[in-house]
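dumping this here so i dont lose it
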């Protein structure tokens, strides 16, 4: 847990001393404004990820006319551009950006963004009397919208990323013509937060990757690991340099990541063919990493997952490490990783500690392999771990503690959700809540990334939940994040020159109904760790109880209303959600349309039965059956996802009810 021991005023006084402002005495501690468990109070906008605290300071501040933005050198160009864009969308006629010391503009509103110890920033925050402690960690920021006649906004940051994240929060505080009069204290719970493109099947397109990197900036994810299994230059052809066209795309991705404060982590997976004892292979590996370093990469990973340690790739490895075994594979891998850490990472300025995916990447059972890694591997190397299984049913603090014991270090979570590249996920798109990850994991993990789906835009539903959790797991609410994902896709976002930031309520409700139908998430054997269609299940259970209790017409009326929402959802989503999300989910939307019509026909059949018209009831049940047959003919294709198959919608819930309904008497 992140304890906050001092008041905002005392912390600000300490910062002023650090900034050389010793002429200002410490202020008495002020009681914090009303807030409950760091959740937004009445009149406080929802911000995603959930800040450590957000409190109402006073009335909203108007945005009109000219706005002046004063920035320290800490504030990079992309943050300045984002601030300008946010203020223009909020209603500013003109936004002028200047450095401290330049002549002031005659502006209706001033925004000051700078280092947390800058005297002007400190005093502005102090005058706002937020009553909260000031964060000192990397990527942290404090924001205050002063509700007085000065009409000022202050953002104090720890570093450039903190300033960027402060403006990302400001983006969520604006509505047409105003900024919410609030104070925000914020810092990330996990130092590494993001996604790993580590799935099998069709890789993301270049444009999808570019969009994902911009999206990560929106939701304060700071890590993208480039590790697509089907990129030959990542795995099979790892020794070969990227051709110029592919290298040009990687170069563009690196630039896009930097513009949104995302660490572009280049992963190279040589395990299927590397000869650990051959200096030529080490030189080839080092040359590949060097090429990426020259392009600006400062984060590297060596995944050695999904390979065999029952054979060597060359005779020299058996001479060096003995017969193939778990232990000898662990020693060979540790030697390779240590050499990369020592001879490449340590000799290249700015490179972060090496990341590594072990061959035994799941569970918490000790083994000869894990023992070798624990005893030989440089303690700085980050070890990735998927939980108590390849697809875990849950991830607990206890699991992470046990993993730390067997690996000899805090592990870096590779969360295999919402990935859908395994047989147990055939026919599924994962749109469920980010759930069954225990609060407190931020204290036990070195960081966390999710492994998304082949469908990049649809993966944002779970990615938003993961962003919320990894930023502030202490106050994480899966349902709140799930709704936030629907609101984001329904328009509550800043993209290009869109005119507003408010979500369309009808699209939000349609998306939530659709998400519910695709809530089920399986482990490797296909059994559920997230249940299918929990909201639909609840409503069907309520219907059955009311029907059995005799209030049949009222029961059907409630059922029909929800069936109508499902039946209308595909059309509303196609009209109101982003094009890429609609494209990703096209087959599932088409199937939902048919299943919705089937549920409506079933409700009408039950209504006819309740009215005593059995002939009409049978006709409506037949109509439902035809719609079900149409839905079952809809399949995904190998070009979209691996493995392809019949598209599934609330299976085990919706199909079961429609099949059983004609038997209800």
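and the seq i came up w/
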């Amino acid at each position: 847990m992140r304890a906050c021991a001092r008041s905002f005023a005392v912390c600000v006084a300490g910062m002023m001393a650090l900034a050389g402002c010793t002429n200002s005495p410490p202020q008495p501690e002020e009681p914090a404004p009303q807030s409950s468990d760091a959740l937004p109070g009445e009149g406080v906008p929802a911000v995603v990820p959930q800040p450590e605290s957000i409190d109402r300071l006073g009335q909203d501040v108007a945005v009109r006319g000219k706005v002046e933005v004063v920035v320290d050198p800490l504030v990079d160009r992309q943050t300045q551009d984002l601030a300008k864009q946010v203020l223009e969308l909020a209603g500013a006629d003109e936004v002028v950006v200047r450095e401290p010391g330049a002549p002031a503009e005659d502006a209706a509103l001033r925004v000051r963004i700078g280092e947390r110890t800058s005297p002007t920033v400190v005093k502005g925050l102090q005058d706002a009397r937020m009553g909260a402690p000031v964060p000192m960690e990397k990527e942290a920021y404090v924001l205050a919208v002063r509700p007085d006649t000065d009409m000022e906004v202050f953002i104090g940051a720890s570093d450039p990323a903190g300033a960027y994240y402060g403006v990302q929060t400001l983006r969520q505080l604006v509505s047409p013509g105003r900024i919410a009069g609030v104070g925000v204290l914020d810092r990330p719970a996990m130092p590494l937060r993001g996604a790993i493109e580590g799935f099998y099947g069709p890789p993301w397109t270049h444009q999808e990757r570019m969009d994902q990197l911009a999206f990560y900036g929106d939701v304060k994810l700071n890590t993208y690991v480039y590790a697509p299994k089907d990129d030959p230059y990542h795995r099979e052809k790892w020794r070969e340099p990227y051709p110029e066209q592919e290298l040009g795309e990687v170069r563009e991705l690196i630039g896009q990541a930097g513009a949104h404060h995302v660490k572009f982590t280049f992963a190279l997976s040589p395990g299927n063919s590397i000869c650990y004892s051959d200096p030529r292979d080490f030189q080839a590996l080092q040359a590949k990493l060097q090429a990426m370093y020259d392009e600006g990469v400062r984060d590297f990973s060596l995944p050695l997952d999904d390979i065999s340690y029952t054979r060597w790739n060359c005779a020299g490895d058996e001479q060096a490490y003995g017969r193939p075994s778990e232990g000898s594979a662990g020693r060979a891998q540790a030697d390779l990783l240590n050499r990369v850490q020592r001879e490449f990472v340590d000799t290249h300025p700015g490179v972060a500690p090496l990341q590594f995916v072990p061959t035994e990447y799941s569970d918490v059972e000790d083994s000869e392999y894990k023992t070798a890694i624990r005893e030989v591997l440089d303690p700085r190397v980050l070890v990735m771990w998927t939980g108590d299984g390849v697809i875990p049913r849950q991830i607990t603090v206890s699991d992470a503690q046990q993993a730390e014991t067997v690996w000899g270090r805090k592990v870096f979570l590779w969360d295999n959700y919402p990935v859908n590249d395994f047989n147990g996920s055939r026919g599924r798109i994962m749109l469920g809540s980010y759930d069954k990850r225990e609060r407190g994991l931020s204290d036990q993990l070195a960081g966390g990334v999710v492994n998304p789906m082949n469908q990049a835009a649809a993966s944002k539903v779970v990615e938003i939940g993961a962003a919320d959790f990894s930023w502030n797991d202490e106050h994480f609410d899966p349902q709140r994040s799930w709704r936030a994902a629907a609101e984001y896709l329904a328009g509550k976002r800043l993209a290009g020159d869109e005119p507003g930031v408010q979500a369309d309520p009808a699209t939000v409700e349609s998306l939530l109904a659709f998400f519910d139908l695709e809530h089920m998430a399986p482990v490797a054997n296909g059994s559920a760790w997230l249940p299918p269609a929990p909201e639909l299940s609840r409503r069907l259970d309520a219907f059955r109880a009311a029907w059995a209790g005799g209030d049949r017409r009222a029961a059907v009326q409630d059922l029909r209303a929800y069936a109508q929402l499902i039946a209308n959802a595909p059309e509303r989503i196609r009209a109101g959600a982003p094009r890429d999300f609609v494209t990703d989910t096209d087959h599932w939307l088409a199937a939902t349309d048919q299943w919705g019509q089937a549920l409506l026909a079933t409700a009408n059949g039950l209504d006819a039965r309740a009215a005593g018209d059995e002939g009409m009831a049978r006709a409506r049940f037949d109509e439902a059956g035809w719609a079900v047959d149409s839905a079952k003919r809809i399949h995904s294709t190998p070009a979209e996802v691996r493995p392809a198959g019949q598209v599934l919608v609330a299976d085990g819930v919706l199909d079961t009810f429609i099949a059983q309904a004609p038997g209800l008497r």
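The chain has a mean pLDDT of 91.
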